[in-house]
Design a protein that fits this description.
Radius of gyration: 22 Å
Helix content: under 10%
Bound molecules: CU-O-CU linkage, copper (II) ion
Shape: globular
CATH topology of the largest domain: Immunoglobulin-like
CATH class of the largest domain: Mainly Beta
């Protein structure tokens, strides 16, 4: 993948101009070229590489055609007929970003900024990068069409480096590779396929949103089922699930474990050896893989996560059960390799329940709309209802997500980082009958590879998932939402306001 190159300086800091443009790109040898939406002509967008505490500025411009390439449902809030069909706004996912640069869903803009959303304030965004080394990603966030804009191609990586990470002497380029995993489906002519109707269809609304969509083809870094040649040595992979709705449970066909060193918001305290990594949409895993005893092997990266997760169907082992392949060369390109895996990585202060100033219980639920489709909701509220979450600056809050739906939801909060406290089963029938939430088992600690700073958490069905969140460093208007993009677009997103 290409890197983003600054075009000039602003206040003595790097300034980037990024144009959203439509291109045709061949995504696989056997597939005719596909029309995709890109940042600066790259699918996925070019990767930013920045340093902690060194701010950058970005002018994002929309130079896309006036018609969407995917089916827009105009009954969805924010995507009505009176709105321009092609609207964009960029969010840096996991970024500690001031509200005016965060990409609020209603801060969208069209080509040449001719039309802008109610919350648009500025065209140039500033990213202060005041956070630990990690893998972030930037993607579109326009109200009511995020699922379509990201599916069309509007996503890319944003990597922050710092000295703590540097001191660990981890593999660097070309032995450090991002792996952005996405699923897509194609028409025989090579164009992207995204359904215009759910199953069963709703004839009164066409096109109509669906509760989720799973592509039948897996892409890594914009290529369908690619292979990568690697040397027999240690590699670092930054894995991102950039799919709309698909979860992945990732393993290597030769049984070699991953050594996970980081999660969404940076390094773990110590490495975790793990043969299966579960990633919901928007979650990241920073891993090391040692190919030194796999000379000449072909190793397939496998996926066996159900869709919808966790009660849906298993992937087909011959298609979506495979992600990509590593072809291990028999020789190293140089004799000097650093294959040392550090034993200690970082210090993570553990937040405990006693530090919390406020606790909120928030339902993850659904409700039928007037056409019988499911509206996914956060705490039973629609997007346009008044703001209900107003944490105080530097207040520490515990948010308990009570999932009363049948599927897992990856819940993401903008601007902040948090820790997972625990997960606990509760009596679902009791809730359905009496509306009371009664736990039925002990609280489970997060998985070893979740015991770091996170920005997206899997909230499983039939469970209460608790996170602890220090709200800072900025005040202002942000959003929290489910990162299954079909849910996010159809009401599973809410504003929150950090008050001074
Ligand atoms: Cu990656 Cu608000 O999202
Ligand atoms: Cu985000
Ligand atoms: Cu969801």
């Amino acid at each position: 993948m290409k890197h983003m190159v600054p075009s000039s300086c602003l206040n003595n800091q790097p300034f980037f101009e990024v144009r959203m443009i439509q291109i045709m790109k061949k995504l696989h040898r056997d597939l005719p070229p596909t029309k995709v939406w890109t940042y600066n002509g790259e699918f996925p967008g070019p990767t930013f590489r920045v340093w902690k505490n060194q701010p950058i500025h970005v002018l994002w411009t929309n130079e896309l055609p006036p018609k969407h390439i995917l089916p827009v449902d105009t009954t969805v809030h924010g995507a009505e007929r009176d709105k321009p069909e092609v609207r964009t706004v960029v969010h840096l996912h996991g970024g500690v970003t001031p509200a005016a640069s965060d990409g609020y869903p209603e801060a969208w803009f069209t080509k040449g900024f001719k039309k802008v959303g109610t919350h648009f304030t500025q065209a140039v965004y500033t990213y202060p990068n005041i956070q630990n080394a990690t893998t972030l990603w930037y993607h579109d966030h326009a109200m009511g069409i995020t699922r379509l804009n990201i599916y069309a191609g509007l996503a890319g990586l944003y990597i922050i480096h710092d000295e703590e990470e540097q001191r660990l002497d981890l593999p660097t380029i070309p032995y450090e590779l991002p792996l952005l995993i996405q699923d897509r489906s194609f028409h025989p002519d090579g164009s992207l396929f995204y359904p215009s109707q759910p199953d069963p269809p709703v004839p009164e609304v066409n096109p109509s949103v669906l509760p989720d969509f799973f592509g039948d083809t897996i892409l890594v870094n914009g290529n369908v089922w690619p292979y990568v040649e690697v040397e027999p040595r240690l590699y670092r992979f930054r894995i991102l699930n950039g799919s709309n709705a698909r979860f992945y449970r990732i393993s290597l066909s030769n049984g070699v474990p991953f050594v996970q060193i980081g999660t969404d918001q940076g390094l773990l305290a110590e490495p975790v050896s793990i043969t299966n990594i579960l990633l919901a949409p928007a979650e990241r895993a920073d891993v090391l893989v040692d190919f030194s005893s796999s000379k000449g092997e072909r190793i397939t990266v496998l996926n066996d996560a159900e869709s919808p997760f966790p009660q849906g169907t298993k992937p087909d082992p011959l298609t979506t059960g495979m992600i990509m392949q590593f072809r291990v060369k028999s020789q190293l390109s140089s004799s000097k390799t650093n294959d040392r895996i550090p034993t200690q990585l970082s210090f993570i202060p553990k937040l405990t329940e006693s530090q919390a100033h406020l606790k909120r219980q928030l339902l993850l639920n659904t409700r039928p709309d007037s056409y019988g489709r499911s509206i996914h909701l956060l705490d039973d509220r629609l997007w346009m209802e008044p703001i209900s979450e107003t944490p105080k600056l530097w207040g520490v809050e515990i948010w308990s997500f009570v999932n009363v739906t049948k599927a897992a939801h990856p819940i993401h909060l903008h601007m902040v980082r948090f820790q997972i406290l625990d997960r606990q089963p509760y009596d679902v029938e009791g809730f359905e009958e009496e509306g009371k939430i009664v736990p039925t088992g002990p609280r489970r600690s997060p998985d070893p590879n979740e015991r770091g700073w996170k920005d997206t958490v899997r909230a499983n069905p039939n469970e209460i998932t608790r996170i602890i969140v220090p709200f800072g460093p900025y005040t202002g208007l942000y959003v929290w939402h489910c990162h299954i993009l079909e849910h996010e677009d159809y009401e599973m997103m809410r504003p929150f306001y950090v008050i001074p």
